[in-house]
Design a protein that fits this description.
Strand order of the largest sheet: 1-7-6-2-5-3-4
Order of helices and strands: HEEHEHEHEHEEEEHHHHHHHHHH
Helix content: 40-55%
Distance between the termini: 71 Å
Structural class: alpha/beta
Largest sheet: 7 strands, mixed
CATH architecture of the largest domain: 3-Layer(aba) Sandwich
Number of helices: 15
Strand content: 5-15%
């Protein structure tokens, strides 16, 4: 049996399977993450038209789940072809608008022919008003940077337009995802939608291609205004604690623009050898006093004047949250324990969220059935336990987010006010001063 068949995806725009799956995904990511920012909805076109969303890619399979769950249109994803070779996976992925893409590593003699079929499918779906979503960086990396982009996006647009002039109305819209803590339950997540990226002036009618370098620069710039892009890249580990201390996921509107301005200033300052040397030395000194990049610098902030407020009221509600989450407590503990054992940081939240999406409702159903059996009226017991489980877990997650804030407030005060932290605090203050130093001074 040929385990690597030639796959011809159907031409479709929406499916019922995708609709149902997306609702499940949306509930899963909202239960796992604390979505505090969902900005830029006004940048989405009002009319139905072909679109391609482009996003940064830092957190494994969680990124496509977030994008699919938080954007209204059904999205079509280009996915590596080898996962389609299983007939059951292929049928499900096709129903979820998945499109296989063949890579050089697949070592197929007819790779070009196969991808021609895929490009034709993409063009026909876009003509029907489908919405594609891509990660132009090509792969994921758990770092807060916008890496060098691949040319697949510009090639796809050039091919699509050359085959159908109707696609000159195609819109390319950037999206940015910013995680406070990749695998952290109920840690903040920001989701920003940017303005349309213009590409038509870069399309050459004669060559039927888009100027790759200019278009990539535009996409890179657009994505850098929506997600964190730490530069210079070679100083990433030295700058990372400072950027985290700015609490980027909390920032909205003007506060976000201030952060972008500071990131641009740091990138420009990085051209100075003296500044780079001073920052690297300060970061090295900070590590010598016990700091490492696994520690959270968000509670410390950039100075003692920006400590978070304590939420004592949240502590008082802890016993109620335990009762509320009782039908889910064991499952949640086992899933978190298994997820934390995964070595790759960028796949921990994926396992936790996906497992919970299926295990929670199944376990609630079984518990509710048993409750109904031992209740004089079955449906009263069943619906009572189901309601307790689903809303109790939601309350528990909501409170966990506020408890994180309370713990951060306590950690901030411990850091800035406890005498035992004098040396680390002094090293942190010096580190901040070196990064903020004016290179012209």
């Amino acid at each position: 049996m040929d385990r690597r068949p030639i796959i011809i995806p159907p031409v479709q725009r929406v499916t019922l399977t995708h609709f149902l799956t997306r609702e499940l995904v949306r509930q899963g990511i909202k239960r796992f993450h604390r979505i505090v920012n969902h900005e830029g909805g006004e940048n989405l076109p009002n009319e139905k038209c072909p679109m391609i969303f482009v996003s940064n890619h830092q957190n494994g399979l969680m990124d496509p789940m977030v994008v699919s769950g938080l954007l209204k249109p059904q999205l079509h994803w280009l996915t590596r072809a080898d996962v389609f070779w299983n007939p059951f996976a292929r049928k499900y992925l096709m129903e979820c608008n998945g499109i296989p893409i063949y890579r050089q590593r697949d070592r197929l003699p007819d790779l070009i022919k196969r991808n021609e079929i895929i490009w034709d499918c993409c063009t026909k779906r876009l003509e029907k008003g489908a919405v594609l979503s891509l990660f132009p960086e090509g792969n994921h990396l758990s770092k807060k940077t916008i890496r060098k982009l691949k040319r697949g996006l510009s090639d796809l647009i050039g091919l699509a337009v050359s085959r159908s002039e109707k696609l000159m109305r195609l819109k390319v819209i950037p999206v940015g995802i910013d995680y406070e803590d990749y695998p952290g339950y109920k840690r903040r997540l920001s989701f920003r939608i940017g303005k349309e990226i213009e590409w038509r002036d870069l399309y050459d009618v004669k060559t039927k291609c888009i100027d790759y370098l200019k278009f990539t620069a535009r996409v890179q710039e657009a994505m850098s205004t929506l997600a964190i892009d730490i530069r210079p890249a070679e100083m990433y580990d030295d700058l990372y604690p400072y950027v985290r201390a700015m609490n980027t996921t909390k920032a909205k509107n003007e506060a976000w623009r201030v952060i972008l301005t500071e990131l641009d200033r740091i990138a420009e300052a990085g051209k100075s050898e003296k500044w780079r040397s001073d920052v690297i030395d300060a970061a090295k000194s900070l590590r010598e006093y016990g700091f490492d990049n696994s520690m959270r610098s968000e509670p410390w902030g950039l100075d003692a004047n920006h400590m978070a407020k304590k939420k004592v009221w949240a502590v008082s509600l802890i016993p109620f949250s335990w009762i509320a989450n009782a039908p889910t407590a064991i499952q949640q503990y086992l899933i978190n324990r298994r997820g934390d054992q995964i070595k790759a940081l960028e796949f921990r939240s994926t396992l936790k969220a996906v497992s919970a999406m299926f295990i929670y409702p199944l376990s609630w159903t079984f518990i509710a059935i048993f409750a109904g059996i031992y209740t004089p009226q079955f449906w009263v017991g069943f619906l009572g336990v189901w309601t307790w489980a689903t809303f109790g877990n939601r309350f528990y997650g909501w409170l966990q987010g506020h408890l994180h804030d309370h713990c951060d407030a306590l950690e901030g005060r411990r850091f800035w006010e406890t005498e035992g932290n004098h040396d680390l605090r002094k090293a942190w203050t010096h580190y901040i001063e070196m990064i903020q130093k004016d290179t012209a001074a």
